[in-house]
Amino acid sequence: MKKTLAAGGARKLVRDIGELQRKAISGMKTFTEIEEVDVGTAPKDLVYSEDKVKLYHYRQEREITCRVPVLMVYALVNRQYMLDLQPDRSIVRNLLQRGMDLYIIDWGYPTKADMYLALDDYLNGYLYNCLEYIRKSTGKDKSSLMGICQGGTFCAMYAAMYPEQVQNLITIVAPFDFSPNDGLLFAWSKYMNADDLVDVYRVVPGDLLNVAYSMLMPFALNIKKYGHMLSIVDDREKLLNFLRMEKWIFDSPGQAGECLREFIRDFFQGNKLVKGEVKIGDRVVDLKKITMPLLNIYASADHIVPPSTTKPLNDLVGSADKSLFEFPGGHVGIFVSSKSQKVLAPFIAQWLHARQDGRSGLKGGVVPQLSAGQPDVHVQVVPKPRPARRAVKAKLPGNKKIH
Amino acid sequence: MEKPTEFIDAWVQMQEEVVDNWLAAIQELPRALPGMEVFKGSLAGLPAGELLNVSLSCLQDLSGDFLHMQQRGTEVMKDTLAKASGTSNVFMKAYELWHPLFQAVQDRALDVDTYSELLEPSEYGEIMDQVFGWGPATATEAINQTTRITGVFCGAVQEYRRPWTEAAEKNGIYLPELAEGRPDTFLHIFHNLFSAFDNTVGKVFHVPAVGKDREKIGLVLRGLDDLAVFNAKYTEFQQRIYVTGIKALEKVLRAVAQRIRSGHEIRTFNELFELWLDINEQEYSHAFRTKEFSLLQGELLDFALKVRRQFHKLMELNLYEYPVALRSEMDDAYKTIYELKRKVRNLERKISDRDVEEAAA
């Protein structure tokens, strides 16, 4: 019979502590041998820059099979290299291998000189100019937008304002309906004085926001994670991957004051996007004007942007070809887990390939075909309902469903 | 001088002559100063008249002393000197009495007009009252003032005592909770004591300063005030965290007990650690999700920002005289740059649109 911890497990406890110490000493050696924590290593070229914003074009060493260029837009609050965090778990490399022509925006690190930048500047200014550059350099009138987190909200708003420029819209773990309180950030932001915050800081430090993020799951993010690190500390590659994630988590740019003020006030507190009341510059954002194919991806266990804030987009847009993709994981795992590499990136590539000629994936006969053996992935492709016909239900291999 | 006594005799005689001459001069003074007789008569019954009598009395005392000294002879020189020392007060009185007049002579201000002013009985009386005045009216006023000051002081003591008494009464209510060891009790007690301090001693810190640094001192004091409020709110925040931790620990203990009862004892440290982590995560997540916590966090942020804002203002004031760009100045510069950039961007876009239109045409 095994001894319990309370009754005579002291010897086991001592052994555990001894093992821990051995790992810690071994880990110190591994730590000192790691000189650089490299991230975002997929080869790319800086092709356009404006103020602190940079547009990179990924080098495609294979044949480009998807003719519509894809611009990836990340959130302002974290760095875009999350999509290329480590070579073997990189959405970017994965998409490149599948013949995509990829661009990515690096919003940079705002300083106090950028304190007056508003949403108008980010969308009607920088994003517009980046797409303008891609249009001129590729000769393609339209690009596909792939927005992540807050970048997804940006892309949806941009697609609503300039539908003629956007071929396809992909949003990944992006919030649209800010009314639910099941995400702590959404609950807390409603009682935050955005005006005072911005007036005092001008550019709100990323570290301040990181404190809030670490409070979302205080024990998992501040204790459990480092406990886990001790178990891998003597494995150089695993430790390196852990450090890459740590680097990303704490690499938080400051937030330009005016933009953050608008985002807290009009989105988190006013929930104006779903009400059609958001005005960017002199343009009102009407999500019904999103008529291009939409792929809305959410993570079922997302504690930062809960599904309840993401899913409503599909009911608000005017697209006939709209898809809702549920990924079984969290806000970060959706990019770096092994599952995301096997499932998410291939699916996105397939979805885009199917819509590169401006035709709906359904109408064009190209239905996303996912390989079997991925039981956790649910896909809902929802065509615009036609009054004369009943909705057709069909099953894809595994648990993937088309309604 | 063959003997010392001869010297002393001569010295005393000389002093006698000086005093005699001085007395004679004083007696001649009314005749030397026109209107002195009138002056003397008109002062009768007034404080100044009394003063004149006192002065004459002093002179008589003085001359009497010298006469007495003369009678006793040189052999009692020591006693004489002692008496001379003892009568110094008389000299002082005389000096004080005549000093204004002598001063006027010295300042060469003793012209006809000054005489007239000096000889105006009522004004002279006024001057005398100012110099020596300690009449019944003054005494009455002094008593009144003293009474008033005492009253104010007693009132101030009452005002000082009351907030502390009230705080003590309020804190007395919390004693049972304190005995229970409830951490929020400390916050309430601190708050009551701080209020008492703020309404008594603390008022000194709220007194508006004067002069050039008035604004700086005001900011420092307001900043301290805001910091105290922030600390109180932060204590409340920490208390919420602490109470949640206690609840979580209780749940951990219950979970461990439950597992022992059901025969699933915890066998490793990791198992216990994981259990502790999971329960704490759930408990804190639940606490953070409440509206009360969101409100508290919002308030905490507000107070923290208020402290920071005061600090920034203070920095601006202190750095104003130094050759560095101030925050507000840089704000203006950034604003100008930002607006210029927007103008350039809009103009570039207009040019681009026009080029496209022209190419299409």
Q: What does this protein structure show overall?
A:
- The complex is a heterodimer of chains A (403) and B (361).
- Chain A is an alpha/beta fold.
- In chain A, strands 1-2-4-3-5-6-11-12-13 form a nine-stranded mixed sheet, with helices on both faces. In chain A, strands 7-8 form a two-stranded antiparallel sheet.
- In chain A, helix 2 (91-97) packs across helix 15 and helix 3 (119-138) crosses helix 4.
- The longest helix of chain A has 24 residues, at 10-33.
- Chain A has a domain at 44-205 and 254-370: Alpha/Beta hydrolase fold, catalytic domain (Rossmann fold, 3-Layer(aba) Sandwich).
- Chain A has 15 helices and 15 strands.
- Chain B is mainly α and 361 residues long.
- Chain B has three domains: 4-133, no CATH class; 215-324; 329-361.
- Chain B is built from 14 helices and no strands.
- In chain B, helix 1 runs antiparallel to helix 3, helix 3 packs across helix 7 (121-132) and helix 11 packs antiparallel against helix 13.
- The longest helix of chain B is centred in the middle third of the chain and has 48 residues, at 214-261.
- The N and C termini of chain B lie far apart (139 Å).
- Mean pLDDT of chain B is 75; it is low at 82-87.
- The interface between A and B is large, with 41 and 38 residues.
How many DSSP E strands of chain A?
15
CATH superfamily name of the domain at 44-205 and 254-370 in chain A? Alpha/Beta hydrolase fold, catalytic domain
| Name of the CATH class of the domain at 44-205 and 254-370 in chain A | Alpha Beta
Unreliable runs of chain B: 82-87
Give, in spatial order, the strands making up the sheet with the most strands of chain A: 1-2-4-3-5-6-11-12-13
Helix content of chain A: 40-55%
What is the distance, rounded to the nearest whole angstrom, between the alpha carbons of the first and last residues of chain A? Answer: 55 Å
Task: Give a short account of the largest sheet of chain B.
Answer: none
